[in-house]
């Protein structure tokens, strides 16, 4: 995709560029919504806004993966690690979330 133009420049985007821009906007909106929900539920969304594949981390005992699966997301566990934060260390589950 070519450099996006500013709102003041005339739009010479192709249909393909417009479609790609709409997809990116939807991914960013989904990322923002999931980010809010996941952090509300005690997890961390760690992927970059706009990436088709989203990744989150959740506390080991969390049912967040099942929860998101129940909401229609394709959820794939990809391992576990220890999250280091200033207050505590906790074992967390690394999970990938695909858009459906
Ligand atoms: Zn345009």
Question: How would you describe this protein?
Answer:
With 100 residues, this protein is α+β, with helices and mostly antiparallel strands. It has one domain. The structure holds zinc ion. Zinc ion binds next to loops. The site of zinc ion has 3 residues, from loops.
Provide a compact summary of the structure:
The chain is of the alpha+beta class and 100 residues long. The protein is 33% helix and 30% strand.
Write the SSE topology.
Blueprint: H1 15-40, E1 44-45, E2 53-59, H2 64-70, E3 74-84, E4 89-98
This protein binds zinc ion.
Largest sheet, if any? 4 strands, antiparallel
Which hetero compounds are present in the coordinates? zinc ion
Low-pLDDT sequence parts: none
Total helix count?
2
**What shape does the CA trace take?**
elongated
Oligomer: single chain
Radius of gyration, in Å, reads 17 Å
């Amino acid at each position: 995709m070519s450099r996006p133009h500013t709102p003041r420049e005339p739009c010479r985007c192709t249909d393909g560029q417009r479609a790609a821009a709409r997809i990116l906007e939807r991914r960013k909106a989904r990322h923002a919504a999931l980010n809010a929900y996941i952090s509300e539920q005690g997890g961390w969304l760690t992927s970059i806004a706009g990436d088709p594949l989203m990744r989150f981390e959740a506390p080991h005992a969390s049912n967040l993966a099942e929860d998101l699966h129940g909401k229609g997301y394709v959820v794939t566990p990809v391992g576990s690690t220890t999250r280091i934060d200033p207050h505590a260390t906790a074992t967390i589950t690394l999970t990938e979330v695909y858009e459906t």
